[in-house]
Amino acid sequence: FKLPSDSFKYLGWCDLEERGVRGNQLRCPRVREGPSEEELFFRKEEHTLKRRKQVTDTEKWEKRLQENWENCAELNLSFQDLGDLYQVENFQRILRRLIRVEKLWLVDNSLTDLSAIRLPRCRELNVNKNHFTSFKQLPKIPQIQHLSLAENNITTLSGISDLRHTPLESLILRRNPCEFQERYRQLVFSNLPNLKMLDGIPKLPEDCSPPDVRFFYRMCTIL
């Protein structure tokens, strides 16, 4: 049986009539778009989407103002299910507009590279359960204090020094391959002297001793 909201399931909140909610008031929006009219026709669901009209430049500008992502300070864009390229593009379009966001969650979005994104005021970023393989693929986050990268695929600590000049205090790298690197904690703290907590554990005295670089040169493999 169809639900009362069935006719609205592919509509964005900007397309709803008599709505007074702006973009910066949303906390967990779905930013991906629905299927095209052609796809709905083949699904035999064309009744779920109103016939689209030609949108003027004025209407596009009004919609952009209504989104108002520039004034958003806290936002959860997790679990977006970005299955198509146009959905990914729309997702990144919104990320580029988050110039004042301070807390941002992007959990489980199959993200691989956000290096072209800049989040100048972001203090807390959660990108757990994505597909990052390097610190170089993270967005520009000069004011970051708390960063969570659990359950990605970061294999080495190469590039972590890019965070050295940020006020980063807490870092979570649990369930990444780099966690099993020799002297993992010492290497992280030596690259990030301002860091106070790693993987939920405060900085310990044994974490402060600099890693013996010569140790790695003396290693050899015996067959």
TrEMBL record:
Record-linked PROSITE patterns: LRR
Keywords of the record: Leucine-rich repeat, Repeat
Gene3D superfamilies noted in UniProt: Ribonuclease Inhibitor (3.80.10.10)
Source domain of life: Eukaryota
InterPro entries linked to this entry: Leu-rich_rpt, LRR_dom_sf
Keyword Endoplasmic reticulum attached: no
Name assigned to this protein: TILB protein
Gene of this entry: Lrcc6
